[in-house]
Write a structure and sequence with these properties.
- This is Zinc metalloendopeptidase, leishmanolysin family.
- InterPro entries: Excalibur_Ca-bd_domain (IPR008613).
- Pfam families: Excalibur.
- The structure is a single chain.
- The chain has 318 residues and is α+β, with helices and mostly antiparallel strands.
- The protein is built from six helices and twelve strands.
- 19% of the residues lie in helices and 19% in strands.
- It has a four-stranded mixed β-sheet with strand order 2-5-7-6, covered by helices on one side.
- A hairpin with a 2-residue loop joins strand 8 (164-167) and strand 9.
Length: 318
């Protein structure tokens, strides 16, 4: 078998093992502790899924899906995720996406996560763990495969299902499993409220969950993986370990009342440490416990972090 980009053959289920995630590190080297945190995140996310990763034989060309990725040939027995450490934009800490979807199930063959090298050394272990879990869920398709236009298999087949619905000016997630979970939590909207990017739970209505926009404001803890996110995995076709869901409640009132800062990030009464001239990156601002976005005139503001010049630095989430 030969092909230019990727050839893959689904192997028999007889040799299929339980779902696992293999991470391969590229780019700037991580410390031993950071490497261990990446592995822990992969183990945690893999434990949420009870359906097996069916082995698949691949021939992936170099630079396919993302620049700098190596050529891969052979049989994948786990979901392969490249973790590339490199410089990203000031307002971006990390991105994650699936690469090449299987025929029939439209589930990922492999994926890639880009981590911003700038500010990584200043990030607390819990915040790196939180970020990696968040991005691994994106690789699995949560938030990235919710709309039909992105659900195209390696053979070019399309899945017409879409889990995103617009009602008036608002976006909602309407996949049946996550929607049922939202109802059990007391949610009354037409669907689970989404951020404008249609790839995260609303940072205002579903705050401090692993996939909510508000999770981008690091809190010195690992944000909970709730029944909402497990439901979204089920909607994509995964079987899940429901016992793996963390305790979670929809906010009553403002999100600020729900998010409790870890004392180790910025102890009460202790001044926030702000470098002279402002934070180098938004990742560094989050790691220091800064409330984002940072307004012009506030400690830590820097023009270089205010991409559109509107006086608000670090406006975007992850």
């Amino acid at each position: 078998m030969s092909c230019l980009l990727l050839c893959w053959t689904l192997l028999g289920h007889a040799g299929a093992a339980s779902f696992g995630i293999e991470t391969r590190l590229l780019g700037r080297p991580l410390t031993a502790q950071q490497q261990a945190t990446v592995r822990e995140a992969a183990d945690r996310v893999g434990a949420l899924i009870t359906s097996p990763y069916a082995p698949v034989r691949v021939e992936i060309a170099a630079n396919d899906c993302d620049q700098g990725l190596p050529k891969v040939q052979g049989t994948l027995k786990k979901l392969l995720v490249f973790v590339v450490v490199k410089r990203l934009g000031d307002d971006v800490y990390a991105t994650g996406m699936p690469c090449d979807l299987r025929d029939g199930s439209y589930l990922p063959v492999y994926g890639v996560i880009d981590l911003n090298a700038d500010g990584l050394s200043e990030l607390a272990r819990e915040d790196l763990l939180d970020t990696m879990i968040h991005e691994l869920l994106h690789v699995l398709g949560v938030g990235t495969l919710w709309e039909a236009e992105y659900r195209v298999s390696i053979s070019g087949d399309t899945d017409e299902r879409s889990f995103v619905r617009r009602v008036g000016g608002a976006l909602y997630y309407t996949g049946p499993h996550a929607l049922a979970a939202y109802r059990t939590l007391g949610g009354q909207k037409p669907g689970v409220p989404l951020d404008p990017d249609a790839g995260h739970w609303s940072g205002r209505a579903v705050c401090a969950e692993i996939l909510s926009g508000a999770a981008g404001d690091f809190t010195g803890r690992v944000n909970p993986v709730s029944v909402l996110t497990l439901g979204a995995l089920e909607d994509l076709g995964y079987r899940v370990n429901r016992a793996g869901a963390s305790s979670f409640k929809l906010p009553q009132g403002s999100c600020a009342a729900q998010i409790k800062k870890d004392a180790s990030v910025n102890p009460p009464g202790a001044p926030m440490r702000v470098p002279q001239g402002g934070f180098a990156t938004c990742a560094a601002a989050r790691a220091a416990g800064a409330s984002l976005p940072i307004r012009r005139g506030q400690p830590g503001y820097r023009v270089g972090l205010d991409g559109d010049g509107d006086g608000l630095a670090c406006e975007t989430g992850r």
